[in-house]
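Predict structure. Chain length: 225.
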Amino acid sequence: NQLAAWAEMARAIAHEINNPLTPIQLSAEHVRKLLHDRGVLPSPEITACLDTIVRQVRELRDISGAFSTYAKLPDLVLVRVELAAFLREIAAPYRSALPPGVLIEERHAEAPPILADATILARAIVNLIENALQAMPQGGTLRITSGPQEPGEVVLTVEDTGAGLTSESRARLFEPYFSTKSSGTGLGLAIVRRVVAGHGGSIDVTSSPGRGTTMRIRLKQAPRV
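Prediction complete.
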């Protein structure tokens, strides 16, 4: 199917990107040592060039990692998670270091626990929060909410008051390699969708130009013990 084809392409791209990175990095470090031993370094210009090579290798490793993650998510280790406490912990670093002009609102209603891999699901939610903040460069409100939904379900939302999305962008938002940003792999929201699906849940988006964006994740409550 199409998702399997995307995953295979991501795996192949990750492999092709990753292979040359180690020799490039090792060569840059070897050149640095040779130039230092021969008295050429320190030199601000040469040091800057070598630092750029090493930094770009690091960024390529991050890109390769994103492709690998999309190709095969790690095996989930599911535990019972209290959603409100879980989301408050994720939001805590943002409460103390929000961008200028951004406010954060949290509303959590009492809800049954879910079964989740807390580390992997947290990464997905952080991705949604980061996207929301990037959508509000002039400031706005970040809202994070959670609570019960349909019987046996809980819902969490990440909402911004940013520029919003066109209907075309909204329809394609979770496609691999589609992005509304000028940088990055375009895999962030595709990975979020795979993470949510791996938890047996679903994600949808509500947005329109000038009215902000709401990401809504529905998850099944944990079985009663």
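Summary: The radius of gyration is 21 Å.
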